[in-house]
Amino acid sequence: MAVAWDEFRLVRAIAERGALAPAAAQLGINPSTAFRRLAALEAGLGARLFERHRAGYVPTPAGEAMVAAAARMEEEAARFDREVADRASVPSGVLRITAPAGLAIDLLMPMLARFRGLYPRVRLDLVVSEEALNLSRRDADVALRATREPPDNLVGRRLSGVAWAVYGPAAGSPGADPLWVSPDEGVAGGLFARFVAARAAPERVALRLNSVQGLCEAVAAGIGIGALPCYVADRHPALRRLSGPEPDLAVGLWLLTHPDLRRSVRVRAFLEHAAAEIAPLRAALEGRRAERCFEHPDGATA
């Protein structure tokens, strides 16, 4: 039986997701369609590709072989795409960029607007995701990430530092033992949760979020004080700083791509554009201000 490429993609998606519904959503098809296609494929091959358990779909040896073949085929297709992208002389085509929500909303949108003005033949595809996408598979061409350790398999440059400080509402004083808001343990490997835990007892954490999104709004609403990115919070009229930049939360702002894409005209154009756009913003990103008098949570100043 000759197996179409789409069937390899289906089997790989089911193996990665462990269930039909999320695999179908990933591929943009209905779960019933995925079910029928898998049943027809197994019948045509005369072999079961998955064991159906209560916990999900587990590949059989035949299924594992097909998943491995799909990975090799996808890598070859991605390699071909990268080679073709390298041959363009004028920036054009689709440029797929990934960034977490905070950076996409507060930093990237104006940059993308000006990039489009310079290169109207480039069509932008922005993937807002907190997860690191696989640039080797062309899930994205360029990644903008705030991190301390960029992946070894990617290349790029550190554009700036990203500073975080403790903020409270602009009106009123936090007092000696303030309430806090904090991302939970699942965000950034627990970095923020540990930072707050070192400064407040569990009962003083009034709100936990499963994302950094919403932190500024929670602090501005008076729910509690919290660590916020300086480049966002310093511009927020309802917030004021209570500390200087916190070394425990400092990260770098990295612009990353796959090594095979460095020579792509549109990728290179965006890397250069982003670096030029970020340069004048470094002072704000790194939390450097002319006035450095902050009120600490205990009411003292520094």
UniProtKB/TrEMBL annotation:
<dbReference type="InterPro" id="IPR000847">
    <property type="entry name" value="LysR_HTH_N"/>
</dbReference>
<protein>
    <submittedName>
        <fullName>Transcriptional regulator, LysR family</fullName>
    </submittedName>
</protein>
<dbReference type="Pfam" id="PF00126">
    <property type="entry name" value="HTH_1"/>
</dbReference>
<dbReference type="InterPro" id="IPR005119">
    <property type="entry name" value="LysR_subst-bd"/>
</dbReference>
<keyword id="KW-0805">Transcription regulation</keyword>
<dbReference type="InterPro" id="IPR058163">
    <property type="entry name" value="LysR-type_TF_proteobact-type"/>
</dbReference>
<keyword id="KW-0804">Transcription</keyword>
<dbReference type="InterPro" id="IPR036390">
    <property type="entry name" value="WH_DNA-bd_sf"/>
</dbReference>
<dbReference type="InterPro" id="IPR036388">
    <property type="entry name" value="WH-like_DNA-bd_sf"/>
</dbReference>
<comment type="similarity">
    <text>Belongs to the LysR transcriptional regulatory family.</text>
</comment>
<dbReference type="Pfam" id="PF03466">
    <property type="entry name" value="LysR_substrate"/>
</dbReference>
<keyword id="KW-0238">DNA-binding</keyword>
<dbReference type="GO" id="GO:0006351">
    <property type="term" value="P:DNA-templated transcription"/>
</dbReference>
<feature type="domain" description="HTH lysR-type">
    <location>
        <begin position="3"/>
        <end position="60"/>
    </location>
</feature>
<dbReference type="GO" id="GO:0043565">
    <property type="term" value="F:sequence-specific DNA binding"/>
</dbReference>
<dbReference type="GO" id="GO:0003700">
    <property type="term" value="F:DNA-binding transcription factor activity"/>
</dbReference>
